[in-house]
Specification:
This protein has 199 residues and is α/β, with parallel strands linked by helices. It is built from eight helices and eight strands; from the N terminus they run H-H-E-E-H-H-E-H-E-H-E-E-E-E-H-H. It has a four-stranded mixed sheet.
Length: 199
């Protein structure tokens, strides 16, 4: 799983990959003649944290193959990240339908993967910082980007149910949302069959 690099990190990776490829090991000294010691440490920390290089046991490093790193930019990270959150939330709207329908309805692909989440108004800043720290774009009420992103829906009070390890809008609310648009017809039918029409 890789995350996007700032330009200086991408250029450093390009230099290392052009010189060593994905198989040959190298040391931090590989960049000594190009950048200062402090910048070299910053670059290596960035490349390691971002998943573009890996560290071997003997204090050497190897580049991740660029095709693997590039594909890693589009990995789904939200499901794992959300499990470490410390504030209340509830997946809502299409995201709740997705979870309650056991993914019979899928709203995501690697090109575009929105998650809709109710959060308490007082916690919006926490959630912005939380997702920013994990390199996951987030927006309040609306927004869009390539790949994964979160739409935060601020509310003054929050109730949710647990489903598959996630906090989600209630089943009745999710079925009602599914009934609101023909695009969710299959998921709506699936939920009614699984949970009963009067769920």
């Amino acid at each position: 799983m890789a995350i996007a690099l700032p330009q200086y990190g991408l250029k450093a990776y390009a230099v290392l990959y052009a010189r060593y490829g994905a198989k040959e090991a190298f040391r931090q000294s590989a960049l000594e003649w190009i950048v200062s010691t402090s910048m070299k440490k910053k670059i290596f920390a960035l490349l390691l944290k971002s998943g573009w290089i890996k560290k071997d046991k003997d204090n050497t490093y190897r580049c991740i193959n660029p095709s693997v790193a590039i594909r890693g930019l589009l990995d789904f990270r939200v499901p794992l990240a959300i499990k470490t959150a410390k504030r209340p939330y509830a997946f809502t709207g299409a995201s709740a339908v997705e979870i309650w329908s056991d993914y019979a309805y899928m709203q995501r692909g690697m090109e575009k993967s929105p998650y809709y989440m109710k959060v308490l108004q007082k916690d919006v800043h926490y959630w912005k910082d939380f997702f920013s720290s994990k390199e996951i774009p987030s927006y309040t009420s609306s927004g869009s980007t390539i790949g994964e992103y979160i739409i935060l829906v601020p509310v003054t009070s929050l109730s949710s149910e647990e489903k598959d390890g996630f906090r989600v809008d209630g089943l009745k609310e999710s079925i009602a949302f599914a009934h609101s648009n023909e695009i969710y017809a299959y998921a709506s039918s699936y939920m009614e069959r699984k949970y009963g029409a009067a769920a």
